[in-house]
Amino acid sequence: MECTLVEVAPSSDFSIQNLPFGIYSANGNGPQVGVAIGEWILNMSALAGAGLFAHIKQLDAQVFAQPRLNDYMALGRPVWRAVRAVLQDFLANANNAVRTQLAAAEDVLVPMGAAQMHLPARIGDYTDFYASREHATNVGMMFRGKDNALMPNWTHLPVGYHGRASSVVISGTPIRRPNGQRRPDAAEPPVFGPSVRLDYELEMGFFVGPGNELGAPLSLAQAEASIFGVVLLNDWSARDIQAWEYVPLGPFLGKNFGTTISPWVVTMEALEPFRVPQPPQVPRPLPYLSDAEGAPPAGYDIQLEVHLQAGGQGDFHLLTRSNLKYMYWTLKQQLAHHAVGGCNMRPGDLCGTGTISGPTKDSFGSMLELSWSGKSAIQLGDSQETRRFIEDNDVIRITGFCQGADGRRVGFGECTGQLLPASSLELS
Amino acid sequence: MECTLVEVAPSSDFSIQNLPFGIYSANGNGPQVGVAIGEWILNMSALAGAGLFAHIKQLDAQVFAQPRLNDYMALGRPVWRAVRAVLQDFLANANNAVRTQLAAAEDVLVPMGAAQMHLPARIGDYTDFYASREHATNVGMMFRGKDNALMPNWTHLPVGYHGRASSVVISGTPIRRPNGQRRPDAAEPPVFGPSVRLDYELEMGFFVGPGNELGAPLSLAQAEASIFGVVLLNDWSARDIQAWEYVPLGPFLGKNFGTTISPWVVTMEALEPFRVPQPPQVPRPLPYLSDAEGAPPAGYDIQLEVHLQAGGQGDFHLLTRSNLKYMYWTLKQQLAHHAVGGCNMRPGDLCGTGTISGPTKDSFGSMLELSWSGKSAIQLGDSQETRRFIEDNDVIRITGFCQGADGRRVGFGECTGQLLPASSLELS
């Protein structure tokens, strides 16, 4: 299938096979729902006004005029599929009834360069998992030694923790280096000041669709049906603050100064062709986390890269090349586990996968792992520069895409953020 | 000062010195802002319509017609104080200009018995601290032995973790016992089923007012100015699920199946007369957590009780008698620490104090402590019944009040919830 309404370059993340959803503002109008196609944004509210979705009974077209996707996410897979089919026909079929009525295609298109992107949803709650075996093993080896790297619970459940929803920001928002307590010398009292071990974590995040009521768990199949789509996610981490504070209740200020996500939510419909088997799970998980016989594979082949631009200038240097398929616990296992005790998941809730590290060193998803806790310097490409952790004004950029067999990409755009110097703290 | 509009019994939690804010619905109308006085609720929207607050310039009277307090919480202390002064004059002064204009006082009053209460705010984020030294020591002794009871960080910072906002519910909402993974035998794999060590935690929670922007910390004084008010809070806890899951990232499913709060938010203005010194802090905290010389005491003398009604029938039996004054880390220290790395706090965010245990056994704020991890049975008053943890259909009720020197109370009403049996899980 080819888009005939606008030209889409083969290298574009936003082919007609993708059609990710986002919230944009342009032309002096407030934030509203858009869908990316090539270098353009489809104005979904205008398309609804032209009657494109009129036959989809469960769809109140007002959901596209809203400044967030929560209400659209609540509608569920049958509606999402119907809308996707209608959009693909509109874009590919020059004889589409609505398309032939439009005075000009420009009435429903906004150039990406003229739009500002916003958070896709009001994120009611944000949860972060720890679902890559390679990452958990690497971090465990550094903190507890090789023999105790993985905790006994790790292969039985997707370990996760509640994160901070208020500080989830959209790609392009600068992040300020946090001040905080750390204890560089275990024989001395803690000190206060800017974090000196500031890190990124390469993650993806999924948005919850319909969700569940309090006290009513989701089966694994229901959990899969309730996932709307996926974004890139950078879980900025202050390792020194985290190391001092995290016992016994987990990460807190080491994480809550900022989490960056990419603006376009790639739907599970678009990712369907890129399913691959997840890594073998031994021991077999408990029944509520185990797929029925014959279920389709639940991993996804999504190629991921992290680049660093030193001091915010010049070339971007490759730090990490990884893939979502390395993830031990799948997205639906994460969601089913989250809800199994009755926790209510709401449309627009965000779950991060945890750092996605692969088996080889070039696939490690954080500088903590790449520099092995700061012990070795990371060379930045052919430049003279090295890093152990992120320095002031460095820019971290995460990108990702699925490569379709037909040469078309289903891509995620960018998740980018610049680290600003810590504020000089004058608190009195 | 006496209320002359309606009669208020001396034993009432809701004297004219209190005036807590809540969200209620009655008479077929949707949720809106009310203030409790005796057995009545003041309809704040009706009072605003009558012009009672017309001279308070920063107050858009529309904030009282809203179904949540977030916008009122955002206004800050000068407005809160002005509204309180106006309300006290209206209630006490029979010659108050607005009062003499009203056709009947009933036009602005709703009997509490005819109203349904709702969550006071849309809770953007919920955080739970661990700020009682006695509680942290008790739990630490059970899990790590007497010599390692308190972690090294505990006396340097208020340890806390992000909780789940979606499952915070209003008093009276039943809580369903969660299913989940636990590992009763450390030599065997984990098992799945209903939690068998279900507990309450006696806490209080504070609502954030104006808050701060991302990257802009709050000083201790700014943090104090940003606290709107306080509620009772029950942090329901599944100890067996928590014990298996919590390393290394903290509590997750052991906590997120439900958190109950009382409906009336008692303002810091009402609590002002009940300030008492906090426990001595040794070592002295870092400067961002240390008060200026001459600052008023930052503890509060709030008497707290927990009762259990066995199986939801018959008498309520006293389990815990504690006091907020035992809390080592004060409310403003908790909030200042939360924001010091730049985490943005939004109006309506909720922070729990953590379990409030005192020095004596009858003041322990959880059954984990009262039964010393289930080792000894807790006698329920003069009855034949005992408990080690909460059983199905038991009701847990938290109450609390400050006793004024004039015999008037500033009280919190109730934070009550019944534990329903676990659902029979048929997930497929």
Overview of this protein structure:
Two copies of one chain form a homodimer. Chain A is α+β, with helices and mostly antiparallel strands. Chain A has two domains: 98 residues, Fumarylacetoacetase, N-terminal domain (SH3 type barrels, Roll); 295 residues, Fumarylacetoacetase-like, C-terminal domain (Fumarylacetoacetate hydrolase, domain 2, Alpha-Beta Complex). Helix content of chain A is 17%, strand content 26%. Chain A has ten helices and 26 strands. In chain A, the strands form seven sheets. In chain A, strands 6, 7, 8, 13, 14, 16, 17 and 22 form an eight-stranded mixed beta sheet that branches. A five-stranded antiparallel beta sheet of chain A has the order 4-3-2-1-5. Chain A has a five-stranded mixed beta sheet with strand order 9-26-25-20-21, with no helix packed on it. The longest helix of chain A has 16 residues. The first copy, chain A, is globular. At the A-B interface, β7, β9, β10, α6 and α7 of A face β7, β9, β10, α6 and α7 of B. Chains A, B: It catalyses: 4-fumarylacetoacetate + H2O = acetoacetate + fumarate + H(+). Chains A, B: GO terms for molecular function: fumarylacetoacetase activity; metal ion binding.
CATH class of the largest domain in chain A: Alpha Beta
Strand content of chain A: 25-35%
Q: Radius of gyration of chain A over alpha carbons?
A: 22 Å
Helix vs. strand class of chain A: alpha+beta
Q: How many DSSP H or I helices of chain A?
A: 10
Q: Largest interface by residue count?
A: A-B, 75 and 75 residues
Number of domains of chain A: 2
CATH A-level architecture of the largest domain in chain A: Alpha-Beta Complex
Q: Characterize the quaternary organization of these chains.
A: homodimer
What is the CA-CA span between the terminal residues of chain A? Answer: 63 Å
Shape annotation of chain A: globular
GO molecular function (chains A, B): fumarylacetoacetase activity; metal ion binding
EC number (chains A, B): 3.7.1.2
Protein name (chains A, B): Fumarylacetoacetase
Catalytic activity (chains A, B): 4-fumarylacetoacetate + H2O = acetoacetate + fumarate + H(+)
